[in-house]
Design brief:
Layout lengths: L1 H7 L8 E8 L11 E6 L2 H20 L16 H17 L3 E8 L9 H10 L4 H11 L2 E7 L2 E2 L3 E3 L10 H9 L11 E5 L2 E8 L2 H21 L10 E4 L12 E2 L2 E2 L5 E4 L2 E4 L3 H23 L1
Parallel strand pairs: 1-4
Antiparallel strand pairs: 1-2, 3-8, 3-9, 4-5, 4-6, 7-8, 10-11, 12-13
Keywords: Nucleotidyltransferase, RNA-directed DNA polymerase, Transferase
InterPro entries: DNA/RNA_pol_sf (IPR043502), Rev_trsase/Diguanyl_cyclase (IPR043128), RT_dom (IPR000477)
Protein name: RNA-directed DNA polymerase from mobile element jockey
């Protein structure tokens, strides 16, 4: 049955329908829409097929080395810990070399909802994903419907024409594909780590003026990339920080889309608080605690 669905690319309507249940966030004002986290319920049979397809796509992309190694989300042998360790290593190396280290945390607005289906299919084809797979995905992503369930009531069905479906097993790897050419926006000597929609751009150097130029050039290229692919980065939710052990008397002006980014004393990235003065010990303790939790979980299985 699943093979027939794949060959025909004709999906049952139930496979393209989502029930959304709003769950209140803790300690938030329940009169505001933003105080609720949407939980998406989709077809169980569709989830089974998606999981098979996601595994095949991921295996193809990783075995053929199609993805940038600085993508850490939803991929084998990569996770938030590999992303954090990479950044931690870069900061430690900059401190040993007595370099400045400037990092920018960027926030993409409604990341999954902003992906246009035709743009995603184009990127899939460019990475060598076969036409039959992309044809099925195109049908899967187009003209999806959803309803909101509140208590025992269902809203009228609505149709969505863009975005990756929340709760879909395929959505994470498809978003990784969509973001893969983001790294082409980086100027020379500028590094970047991405986990899902969390972006961390950084540059170490002996000169703050050099870093200012490189980071500013990169942010301008990122702005052009976002405009082309119809994404929006929120400057008010983005921040910039200096993480070396050197004294900084004057912070350079760095902007995104003409809006100055605020300099921060600390930045939270993937659950880790990066700050100038407690950097090494805090990160190591956080990584150690998370590792111990996983080890204890394995002991329970033994």
């Amino acid at each position: 049955m699943l093979q027939q669905q794949f060959d025909s690319s004709v999906l049952p309507k139930a496979w393209k329908h989502t029930i959304i249940i709003p769950i209140p966030k803790p300690n938030k004002d329940k009169t505001k829409v933003t105080s609720y986290r949407p939980i998406a319920l989709t077809s169980v049979f569709c989830k089974i097929f998606e999981r098979i397809l996601a595994h095949r796509i991921t295996h193809f992309l990783t075995s053929q080395k199609k993805l940038n190694p600085n993508q850490h989300g939803f991929l084998p042998f990569r996770d938030n810990h590999t992303a954090i360790y990479k950044i931690y290593s870069a900061i430690s190396e900059a401190r040993k070399s007595k370099k400045f280290f400037v990092a920018v945390s960027l926030d993409i607005k409604s990341a999954y909802d902003s992906v246009h289906v035709d743009d995603l299919i184009l990127k899939c084809l460019q990475l060598g994903i076969s036409g039959k797979v992309t044809k099925w995905m195109h049908h899967f992503l187009q003209d999806r419907s959803f309803q909101i369930k509140w208590r025992n009531f269902l809203s009228n069905p609505k149709t969505s024409f863009k975005g990756l479906p929340q709760g879909s097993v395929l959505s994470p790897i498809l978003y990784v594909i969509f973001m893969n050419d983001f790294f082409e926006t980086l100027d020379n000597n500028v590094e970047c780590s991405i986990f899902a929609d969390d972006i961390f751009v950084y540059c170490p150097h002996h000169s703050l003026t050099y870093i200012q130029t490189k980071i500013q050039n990169t942010l301008e290229l990122i702005y052009k990339w976002c405009c082309y692919w119809k994404l929006t980065i929120c400057p008010e939710k983005s921040a910039i920080i200096e993480l070396s052990n050197k004294q900084v008397t004057s912070f350079p002006r760095i902007t995104y889309a003409g809006i100055p980014l605020p300099w921060s004393e600390s930045i939270k990235y993937l659950g880790i608080q990066f700050s100038k003065y407690n950097q090494n010990g805090h990160i190591l303790r956080s990584l150690r605690n998370k590792a111990l939790k996983k080890i204890n979980g394995l002991k329970m299985l033994g």
